[in-house]
Amino acid sequence: MLSTLKLDDSAGVETGSDPVEVFKTIMELLSQHRAWDRFPTTGRLA
After folding, report:
1. What is the per-residue pLDDT for 29?
2. Residue 16, C-beta contacts closer than 8 angstroms, at least 6 positions apart
3. Cα distance from N-terminal residue to C-terminal residue, the chain
4. How far is CA 38 from CA 5, 31, 33, 41, in A?
5. How far apart are CA 44 and CA 13, in angstroms?
6. How many Å apart are CA 40 and CA 3, to the nearest integer?
7. Which residues, in sequence order, are CB contacts of 2 under 8 Å at separation 6+?
8. 13 contacts 2 by C-beta, under 8 angstroms
9. What is the pLDDT of residue 20?
10. Are 25 and 14 in contact (CB under 8 A)?
11. Element (H, E) at 24
12. Phi/psi-derived region of residue 40, left when phi > 0, alpha when psi is between -120 and 50, beta in every other case
């Protein structure tokens, strides 16, 4: 579907044949996302 829409090579799109590896890559990228640095943590869930 992403290929049909020509989104498979777009910024922010992670693709691969192994879903577990894609998930690992996404988790690694999310851990480096700047949004985590913008908001202080309170140590509790909202």
Report:
1. 83
2. 22, 25
3. 36
4. 33, 13, 10, 10
5. 31
6. 38
7. 8, 13, 15
8. yes
9. 94
10. yes
11. helix 19-31
12. beta
